[in-house]
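Subject: Interface between my chains keeps coming out wrong

I've been trying for a while to get a sensible model of this assembly. When I model each chain on its own everything looks fine, but I need the whole thing in one frame so I can look at the contacts. Pasting all components below, labels as-is. Any help appreciated, I'm running out of ideas.
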Amino acid sequence: MIPPIAKILARHLLKGPHTMKDAPRPDPNGVEELAEALGRRARARLGRSLSIREVDAGSCNGCELEIHAVNHPIYDLERFGIRFVASPRHADVLLVTGPVTRNMEEALRRTVEATPEPRWIVAMGDCGKDGGCFAGSYAVVGGVSDVVPVDLHIPGCPPSPRQILAGLLALLETVDQK
Amino acid sequence: MGDITLLEFLSLGRRVEGHRPWPRFALDLRGWRQLIDHLRVAEWSVMAEWAERSEIHVALRDEASGDIAVASHRCDDRRFLALGNVRPGVIRIERAIHDVWGLTPVGLEDRRHWLDHGRWPSRMPLAAQPMAPSAEPDRYPFLQAVGDGLHQIPVGPVHAGVIEPGHFRFHCQGEAVVRLEQRLGYQHKGIEGLLQGAPLDKAARIVARVSGDSTVAYSLAFARAVEAATGCEVPARAHWLRGVMAEMERVANHVFDIGAVCNDAAFAVMLSHMGVLREKVLRANDVLFGHRLNMDRIVPGGVSLDLSDEGVEALKHLLYGFGKLLEQGYQLYENTPSLSDRTVSTGIVQTSLIHRFGAGGFVGRASGRGHDARETPSYPPYDKLDMTVPVLTEGDVNARVLVRFAEAKESLHLINRMLHEMPEGAVRVPLPEVAGEGMGVAESFRGEVVVWLRLGADHVVERCHPHDPSWFQWPLLEAAIEGNIVADFPLCNKSFNCSYSGHDL
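Reply #2:
Try treating it as a single job with all components included. I did that and got this:
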């Protein structure tokens, strides 16, 4: 019997990866162009190694779901050398989600301190901007910028993978201007 | 004692008017004490427990008859007899009630703070008289394990990869975990406080974001609670559209988690395969309902938009190819011995523990407890559909993965049935302008979500409590990991995939 993994691998070899086949409908802001531009800029600035540490400072987990999607074969962020890492000590960028809860405030500060310079902080989602629908609660400080300096906001509830890609491009432009 | 049914027992208390669709009874101190005595022996499971400023409520289900009722107890002296000694699943809930509402659970041995990390502007913030924060720095006394060669591994709250924050304290002897203790609450956003006095649309938005991966289930439970409280009759087509959304959510979460469990066993190809499947569902959601996770699509009174005929055809097309790809993933899982080596007999949860804690969802179903809110108490459209609930008894990581495969397959089948049998008509009706109390139940991919609320006549939420199934599952993860090696913790954790946000509120 041919093992199932051999079948899956053979099919991908013959049909090509999902990344090409399932790319979204072509439009000027399509993910291909966006992702290509993102790749070029990332290389120009930081070689092929932009490392992101994700920090959930109190989100509902919706943003995390879409971050996972960016890592999947269809969007495949890693083909451009941008990857998610497990430790802030390995990271260039902190991608922070959620309204910052009071119980996470210190952990967020400490994570930022543990990230070597130069570092950039991206606040993701409507909650990350100003606390979103959780603003005003006794347990919430507010947006990410109320706790640590933020270089860029990625709007959306939650932002789609395409918006996340667009946001990271905007970050690189911000970085270039600095 | 013993043979009395839940409703017979509660009818000794005073029935509270205006609570729908299940009755609510007010118990005095004697009645509450008797309730605890009955809970020692009776097969009544706790669905949720929540508090108000000077009242404690518990939703119960009689497992024999399926009857549901809420028992309430006024405690003007701000103390109540704890249920945690007879129902260990609610210990953390009662600790959280003390932290937030200031009601003291009498008789509970574990009195450590749970949600309160000593960082809020006041202690007991939702009590009638909140207290000033303590000047002492926050110290959490973790339980100890004593013996030769033991060491501790503290992990978190910022831990692992793209994941919510939580702290895990391992006591280990060499590789083997002797004791794991969780400390959660980092995601506490004060949701119950925000919901008090919120207008209905704002409250619906917040409840939809209690746990982002179960947003459809939360919206559904909230909408059903509001509709019960106001006596609103939802059009038939809305029920079926809700069912389609709920099953899409279940499939998306199950396939992704299956991939993630395999990834934690260093089998990354499965994560890629399942990630592609998940994306197919999310894109279909986007095309059909205009949001990838279907957030805010289920609203009190119906659904916010209809499904077009072209949408139905597109969905049928997706389902055909999807089923085949899911089957390929299943074959790959079943026929990879190196993967089975990691998942079989890892992280076992005993059936007796599952029953004691009343755990539902795939965690319960993988250990022999087949409860599913779609069957009991059931709600439209599931009351018109035949469905099978897969139940296994091994209770290990493998069983939880297999239950998820089976559930995903069943969901595809259900979506297909719903598309074929969906009635025509309106999808939303205005809510009657009446006050009332209501309870809504919906089966999320994790298990049963319960929402209870009291609504004023001006449609302002006076009190609302969303209950996540993770409350009864998190403590079991501590039991599951015992005796396993540290390297298997990610596998166990992901195979549970409890919600941090839903649990922390």
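Reply #3:
Confirming on my end. The radius of gyration of chain A is 18 Å.
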